Amino acid sequence: MSQSFGCCRTLVSSALLAWSFAGVCPVAASAQQSEAQAPVAGAVAGSVEQGGGEQAPAPQRSSPWLLVPLVSSNPKLGTSFGGLGAYLHVFDPGSRVSMFGVNLQYTSTDSTIALIFARTSFRADRHRIVAMAALGYIKNDYEDFLGSGQPLRTNDHVKAITGRYVYRLKGDWFVGARGVAADYQVLGESALDDFVLETLGVQGFNSRALGAVAIHDSRDNQDMPTRGWFLDLNNLAYREALGGSASFDAYRADLRGFWRHGGGHVLALRQFNWLTSDAPGAAQATVVLRGYTRGEHLAPYMSLIEAEERLSLSPRWGVTLFAGVAGLYGASGAFSDSNGSYPTVGAGVQFVIRPVQRMLVNLEYAQGVEGHRAVLLKFGYDW
Fold first, then answer.
1. Could you say which architecture CATH assigns to the domain 2-42+65-379?
2. pLDDT tens-place string over residues 131-156
3. Exposure of 60 by Cβ count < 10 A (0-12 exposed, 13-18 middle, 19+ buried)?
4. Which residues pair with 253 in a beta bridge?
């Protein structure tokens, strides 16, 4: 159950954290120009020496379509293959690039996940809407389900929809609201699995929530930032009155900073907190570092710190080195994890597929503890 609900949470949070789904939120007010006009970090694409009467060539018109293969592999959930297809559009000169697309994934465990998403910016970047709908059929095979000592196989059906709207209040500050609705049904593959589910009190979970959002964003680009800082404060109030199966609260505080140095390199730091109050076991906070399966380790509270060095090798190619540690605390009960800290280290290679819009494909390897590791081919940086 934890992995199935964790996958559902991953799908929902993906659209809200940015589509990679990382930077849903805006470019800075001080960078109000369209992102279609922004240069690639560390290089001015398509420029020539301005001497001898030569002039820079006219910019080429790029296709509005984006196609990206997606692959992930880890020991817990197997290997997934899929792709992202999106249409890019700039609504007006003062807004950033908007995206409308689909994401399909199939895993080696015979699981299937489909996403439809939109990430928009309009009216001179004063308004932004992010929305996503997800459907999934997820098969899980646990050797030790949530530390109970019991093996378990489940088939889970997941449906989720989420949306978020933010408005530029003043300067780099934004305020808005968000909503989430997610349902999943969990069934054992055998009578013994159903008995284990009943014994452990594991049931399907329906969630309905509304919340508020406050953001500061002075980054120069949401997909490939080279400077500025980003703060996202938000909450979700899950309520039975909205149609959910439980009433509880979740709070998140996400702080990121970016510093450009050397020949276009970028140092990135992140500190993230996820706090829950009265949440049922499967809805508690989980480790969100690369290399860990979301939803496998749970506790009422989670905090992490992560550093990443993004090295620019050329206008198109880059390398990342990253390390971080997450802590789970406030644990009690059968569904909580009390093992404490979860470190991760890793590295990646990036290829810029859209130099003008500063969009990239990212291949990374992350190594955690307790057998956690992952290989990821995805769109954009992790955050």
1. Beta Barrel (2.40)
2. 999 988 877 666 555 555 666 666 77
3. exposed
4. 233, 273
